[in-house]
Amino acid sequence: MTVPEDLSSVILSPSFAVLTTEHQCWTCAAVAFVSALWVPRFVERFDDSEELSIPDPAVLRYVESLNLPAKQHITAVAPWMVMATTKGSGTRYLANHCQACGALQGDFQLFGVDGPFGLVTLEKRGTEHISVRYVDCAIEAAAGIAQATWIDQISAKALQPT
Ligand SMILES: [Zn+2]
Hints:
- The protein is an alpha+beta fold and 162 residues long.
- The chain is 19% helix and 41% strand.
- A hairpin with a 6-residue loop joins β7 and β8.
């Protein structure tokens, strides 16, 4: 159960948002920020260079690579997101780290049903506690994607100027 269920492809979007919420570190129990990348719509490019245009929002998971301008914006907004190799998945991706102890907070847990970006958590709690930082910069990422009702609800917040 530690293998990402989405096969990674390249995701392209003209803009994105950084979603941030609080979460209790699994290692030291401090409350720390964790973030996820949200796109309002996207093009998915596969290995055979076939492209699929999706008009709906999604959240990127297991981001294995990223264009530099997008990465710079993310580092400014969410410096706890750093490329790291995880023991669980064995892959290197842009992962959240606890601001108190530095422990990696893996996507598998964060996006798991009970995690802060998990389906069950968000359908129960809603998205009020998620802060949305819209970034007017194109993103090109090798990543998996997740789509869910709560991800669609982010749209209204993301498109408001901050
Ligand atoms: Zn910690």
